[in-house]
Amino acid sequence: MMNFREICKTVFFCIVSVNLGVSSGLEILGFLFAALFVAMHIKQYVLLKSTTNQRKIPRYRKLFAYGAIVPFALWWLLTPSVENGVSPYLVFIPAWYLLYLALLQKRSLGNGGYEVFVVFNGVAALFMGLFQAPRAVVVSATVALLLAVYAFGRPRVALYKRLLFVLMYASLCGSSYLGFKYWKSNHYYSGRWAEDYYLKNRVMGFDPVAALGSFSSNYNSKYNNEIILRIWDTLAPQYLRAAAYEKYVAGIWKLPTTAEKKLYPARYRVDYAIFETEDSITMTPNVKTVWVQATLDNFGFMFAAPNAVGVASKNADSLDYYSTNVFAGANGMRSDWFYYVPDTAATLAITTALSDEIDSAFLQIPEKDLNLLDTIASAMALPVRDSVIADSASLDKSELETQFAVKNLKAIENYFIKNFKYSYVVSWRKSYAGMSMNTGVSNMKDMLALFWKNKEGYCEYYATLATLLLRHQGIPARYVTGFAHPEHVEGRPYVTFRRRHSHAWVEVYIDHKWYIFDPTPPVLVNAFAESSWFSKKIEGLKGRVSYVLHLLKDGEWRRVVDSWQNVSERFVANPVLYGVLILLVVVFAGIRFRKYRRNRISHSVSKDAERWISLLESAEKRLARMGFVRASGETVSAFMVRIKQTMMAQQSARQTIKKASPKDSRFEKDCLSLLKQLEDYENNRWR
Question: Using an 8 Å Cβ cutoff, are 95 and 129 in contact?
Fold first, then answer.
C-alpha cells in the first residue's frame, strides 16, 4: 500500500490546482489538473505492485517541457490588458506553466524526473495562485503548505521542527507584507525618492490646469532625453496637440469648465472604442488611422494631430470632447491609442473651423494685466486696427481682418526674435529696479511681467504672452500645449517625441479657421546632446518589437479569433460535448484495461514457459548422467521414443539371460519418472 506521504503529496497538488483555477477564473482547468494528479497517484500505486517498475515509468522528455512555452506564450499575448493595475495573467499563466512542469516531473520520478523540481514548481504555483485570491483560497493554501512541509520534508524530523519552520515562514511573509504596506503609505508619497519617482513617471504640463513654468522639469531633468511618444506615421504632424486652454488667471491656464459634449463609442476596432466628432466621419475614404504609443500611461489627454476627427481608446466607454478639438477624460490610463486624420499634407498645420462664431472666452484678458499688455503692445509697435482699415479701404471686411491679424503676428514674431533670448533655465534673480508702476506689476511674483522685464524664457512664456497680446488686439487666440518638432530617422516607419519636445504654442482664428502660430524664437544652439548611433539602433529595435507585439495583441486578426472564441464558447456550453467526452473516456479506459489484461496474460504465459523450459533442462541433465543424451536437432518426442526403445531392448536382454538386479529396477523407475516429465513438457509447453 502506498504510504501516507504520497497521499499527502497528491492532496497538496489537488489543492494547488483547484486554488489556481478559482483565482484565475479557470475552474475547469483546475479540476482537470487535479484529476490528472489523482490518476497519476493511482497509476504509481499500481506500478509499485509490479516487478518491472523502472521499465514502465514514462521517461521525462524535455521536448514536452520546452515545447509548452510556445502555447503558453501565445496565451499570454492573446489575453486582454487591464486599464488599472497589473494584469493577473502576468502571474496566472506562469503559474499554470509551473504546475504543468510539476506534473511532467512527478510523472517521470525515477526515470528522468526529480522530486526537487516537483516541490519547487508546486510551491511556486501555490503562492502565485494567491494573487487576487478570495479568502477561502488563502485558507486552503495554508493547509496545502502544511501538507507540503510534511510530505516533502525529510523523514523522521520532529513535528515541532516542521511547525517551527511554517511559523518562521509565515512570520517572514507577514513582516514583508506589512513592510510593503508601510513603504507604500509613507516612503512612496514623501521624500526625495518620491519626488524622483513622480518626475520619472509623469510628464509635466499636461493637466486640466496648466501653470507657467510647468515644462521646466521636462527640459532640465535627467529624463529630458527619454522617448515619450511614438507616432506611427511617416507623414506625422509637426505639432501634436494635447489641450487648448481658454482662460488665463495669474499665471495659470484653464480648460473650459465643461466639455462641449460627451462622446460614446461609435463602434470598436478590436478592443479600441472609436469616438468621432461627427457620425461616421472616420469611415470616409480620405481619413487615415495613426497609432500613438506612449511609454507612460497616465496621460489624461488623447494626443492627436490638430485636425483629428476622431480617436480610439482601449476599453473606454466615454470621452469628453471640448470645442477646442480636445479629447480628454477617457476612463482608465492610456499606454496607446489611435487618432483619425484627413490623409492630406495640406491640413497638417491647420485646424478646421469649429463654428463661424467665436466664443468671447478666446478674447478674454484678466483686468489686472491690461496695463501690462498696453505697455507691451506699445513697445512692440503692434498695428492699430483703425489705421490698417484706413490704409486698405479697398478690401472687404474679411480681407481686412486677415491682413490685420497677419501684421500683428509678424510684429510679435519679429520682436521676440530680435529682443528676447530663448532659455531652458529661467532665472528671476535680476534686479527689479527701474520697473515703473505702468508695467502693471502688482507683485514680484507676476511671472508674465518678469518674463517681459528679463526677456528670457521658453515656449510657455512666449505662447502665453502672444495669446494675450492677440486677444488684446481683438484677434481670437488660444493657448495650446503638446509636443512639437519630432525626431525623424531615415528608414524608420515612425517618429519620436522625447520629453524635451513638450511645447506650447498659439492657435489664432483667421478667416474662419484656426491657424497654428508658434511665437517661440528658434533655438540656434542645440542644448541637448544628439543620441548615439547605438542608442538609435536600440530604439529602432524596441520600436519595431513593440509594434509587432501590438499587432499580435490588438491586430485586426483578433476579430477572427474573437468570432472563433464565441463559437468555441457555444460549443463548450453544449451538453452533447460532455456526453461525447465521457464516452471517449470510457472507451479509452476500456482499451487501456484490455491492454493491461493482455500484458498480465502474456506475463503469466511467459512465466509458465520459463517453468517448463527449466523442467526440460533438469530432465535432460539427469538423463545425460544415465547415458541418454539428446542429439542436436532431435525433438523431445523423438528423444522419448529413443529412450523407450533402448529400455525395451535392455529388458529383452535381461529376460533372455534371466538376470535382473535391484539396480536395474531402480534405473528403470528413474527413466520412467523422467519420461513422464518429458511427456508433461511435450503435452503442456505449447498450449
Answer: yes
- Given a contact cutoff of 8 angstroms between Cβ atoms, the answer to whether 408 and 416 are in contact is no
pLDDT at 344: 66
Which run of H or of E encompasses 440?
none
Task: Give bridge partners of residue 350 from the DSSP assignment.
Answer: 515
| Domains of the chain by start residue, with CATH | 4-187 (no CATH), 360-486+502-527 (3.10.620), 596-684 (no CATH)
d(CA 594, CA 671): 45
Range 464-467, long-range pairs (CB < 8 A, 24+ positions): 464/212, 464/248, 464/253, 464/504, 465/376, 465/519, 466/412, 466/416, 466/506, 466/517, 466/519, 467/248, 467/506
Measured CA distances, 444 to 250, 432, 463, 464 (Å): 12, 8, 21, 18
From the list 611, 606, 596, the residue with the least C-alpha distance to 50 is 596
φ, ψ at 407 (rounded to 5°): -65, -40
Cell of 289: 488611422
Q: Give the C-alpha separation, 197 to 200, whole Å.
A: 5
Model confidence at 438, pLDDT cuts 50, 70, 90, reads very low
β-partners of residue 263 are 319
CA–CA separation, 361 and 372 (whole Å): 20
Confidence of residue 152 (pLDDT cuts 50, 70, 90): confident
DSSP category for residue 324: T
- Which residues does 46 contact at the CB level (< 8 Å), separation at least 6? none
pTM, to two decimals: 0.60
Collect all residues with Cβ–Cβ distance below 8 Å to 93 and sequence separation of at least 6.
72, 75, 76, 79
CA-based nearest residue to 1, from 54, 43, 57, 45: 45
Residues 6+ apart with CB under 8 A from 437: none
What span, in angstroms and rounded, lies between the C-alpha atoms of 57 and 112?
10
- In sequence order, what DSSP letters do the residues of 107-133 get, joined into one string? HTBTTTB-HHHHHHHHHHHHHHTTTT-
Q: Which three-class secondary structure string do you get for 43-102?
A: HHHHHHCCCCHHHHCCCCCHHHHHHCHHHHHHHHHHCCCCCCCCCCHHHHHHHHHHHHHH
Please name the helix (run of DSSP H) or strand (run of DSSP E) that holds residue 249, with its range, or none: strand 247-249
Of 171, 148, 176, 132, the C-alpha closest to 19 is 132
In this predicted model, what pLDDT tens digit does every residue of 468-479 receive, in sequence order? 999 888 888 999
Asked whether 237 and 299 are in contact (CB, 8 A), the reply is no
